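Chain X:
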Amino acid sequence: MRPVEPQVPGVEESREAPERSRHWGHTLGVILFVIVCFEVGIFLLAFPWTDQWNGNSVANMFPWLRNYWSSSYFRGALSGLGVLNIYISMGELMRLRRPGPPPADPLPPADKLKASTL
């Protein structure tokens, strides 16, 4: 058996989840995430198709991977990851633009207030 908690007259418990408002730190973090994700996406989308791709240090470090490194399929896969990064950044930007919940009213309505018997 569980002990019964005493009920205080005039106090109504709210079982609803508390409303959250956006904090400026959260907004700044999302904006930084969007910027970084978008820049990485542009880089992955464009860099594999430039002339510098075959001459970079990673390609020269592993000569036995040169066939895979210069493959159009591998370059296309990296470009696909770039498109995915751009898509994620745009999705986060749209999620940030959605209106948040209205600010919570600090006082309950007058009809919900009850006189205390204490």
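Chain Y:
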Amino acid sequence: MDDMDNITGTAIQIAGATSLASLAAGLGCWLWLPEQIEFWGSITMPREVGIILIPILGIVLTLMLALVVKCDPLCENLDSSSQAAMSVIVMSPSLFSPVLQVIVLWAAFTEHSLGTTPIVFLFSIFLVMLGGAFNYVDQNHVVGIRDPWTLQSAHVWEEVHCLATKLFMLAGLLGMVAVWFIPPGFWQLLFMGVIVLVPLITSSVYSFLIREDAQYQYIVR
């Protein structure tokens, strides 16, 4: 558990640094920002709130993920590759916060409406990262396809995540390209839901289908 504590501690430190960088970028532009910052068309908020919202969300989500990882008993026995992959997922909200902060500031300076395109694009990158992590993460209750069959059998977990790695990375790559051809707003958000649900449901169904094979192997052994 000490190794996992060190990794989550490092992840929190990096998350804090990136969140502070996001906040510093917003504060540095304070005097030149409009009184109201526009988010996604019809949503506006005072600049005092707008420049701190993304950094706070980034660090809060990172802390929540780190807490869940520390409370999961299955994370105690993860190997070094699994721990590294887990730390990347824990850090991901804060890693994306500086990029999103720059996009928000650019939209405020240029008086552009911040549509859903950058959100879907960044989310698609996250899916690629998540798919890559699936290839290394062992059984746990935090990251991965967690259903009764994957958590009961290491064989099912390994087989399902071998498939999930390909599906999520393919979905992310598809999202990074297709988002530029889909109308912003409702249709992009619907597309974002589809590229998450299709690989998730497919992986869960696959875990159900191979559960009997895993039970047979267990009986034979």
